[in-house]
Amino acid sequence: MLTPAGPPVAPRCPVPAPARFPFAPGPAMAPPVEYADLLDGDGLTPVTLPSGSPALLVTRHADVRTVLGDPRFSRAAYTAKPMFARERDSLALALSDPPDHTRRRRAVAAAFTARRARDSVPRIRALAAELIAAMRAAGPPVDLVEAYAVPLPLTVICELLGITVEDGARCRPWMSAMMSTHRYPPEEVARAHRRMAGHLADLVDQRWRAVRAGAPADGLLAELARPGPDDATLSRDEAVAMGAGLLMAGYETTANQLASCVWLLLAERGRWERLRADPGLVDGAIEEMVRLTSLNATGGAPHVALEDVPLSAGLVRAGQVVVPLVDAAGRDPEVFADPADLDLTRSPNPHLGYGHGRHHCLGAPLARVELQVGVASLLAELPGLRLAVPSDEVDWRTDMFIRGPWRLPVTWDGAAR
């Protein structure tokens, strides 16, 4: 006897596997093309990280703030391969949680206050003037990256640390390899980590011996050698890691952001002319360019939820890995009107380009004044500055942790003001 066949069963559609993350970078400083779908989605998107770990991308502005600032999310608990230029065992500030994070940050925080940044403005202006004078003497065209965007923040951070610019420049090839996602082979990256750590260890040991012999503490590395309360004293290894991290972040990130800001202004000439006509707009324009640029090629730092945490986009369960996308949060239409537009007069501008909460960028006040002075000095001293190649022919860093132009050929015409 035949059994009735019953109603037809619809064929099952396979569930698509989560996308691999990080995504391929977008053109120039634009975000990856996948961001269009992310920003139209529900705010929590499942992906697979390079380690093979499943994760959720967090894109809403309010939720990114929560992940960055809420102690229920831990960076240290993510023990897989970091999507960051430092190794997991490097004692890097950006990979730690309180209380270690609090103690390490406290040891150097006084050197990076807003007041100290304001006090540094005359020196940064003088340095910018020297570099522009050298550019004029060399004559156009010049590569703005090598002639201006790199030496400005590199000199500033070397002077703050109390090391020579030559010491800092010696580290540049190693830092370049360390900042590679896939530009350099793994063995070269590992060798660069060892050489960078060894060089900074030598510098720290020199400062410690000098201070203990009675020499004044000249520069931040030497300050770290001075005895202090237990909650403000770093071990030798921590001082080496802190020095390396400050040197890398102090020049690498700011140099690429500065070059990117100049490209944004020169690629659409009306922006440059707008700031020339009204220099008072420069500070706000810098904030807007920081909001709109996708500087971090790997999206963000993975965090692990230590307990169930409700976000506006949904519930994150204890143990889940989330990656807060700061550049996506900067395009949240609930917070920013016309978020894809570069509005030089945007106000307010609560972007998260410098992070938030305990992981707010330590050097943000200094980076801000370097960008403000760096752009304002070019506007004043080289008002006829322009790209020496079509804007779409600029060569961009697509295989490094930090994005920006490899080279920015510029020329100029007209007399300086």
Automatic annotation (TrEMBL):
Gene Ontology BP annotations: antibiotic biosynthetic process
In terms of InterPro entries, this protein maps to:
Cyt_P450, Cyt_P450_B, Cyt_P450_sf
What keywords is this UniProt entry annotated with? Antibiotic biosynthesis, Heme, Iron, Metal-binding, Monooxygenase, NADP, Oxidoreductase
The annotated pathway is: Antibiotic biosynthesis; mycinamicin biosynthesis
Q: What is an example of a Pfam family matching this protein?
A: p450
Tell me the GO molecular function terms.
heme binding; iron ion binding; monooxygenase activity; oxidoreductase activity, acting on paired donors, with incorporation or reduction of molecular oxygen
| Keyword match Heme | yes
Is-annotated flag, keyword Heme? Answer: yes
Record family assignment: Belongs to the cytochrome P450 family.
This chain belongs to the protein called: Cytochrome P450
Q: What organism does the UniProt record list as the source?
A: Micromonospora chaiyaphumensis
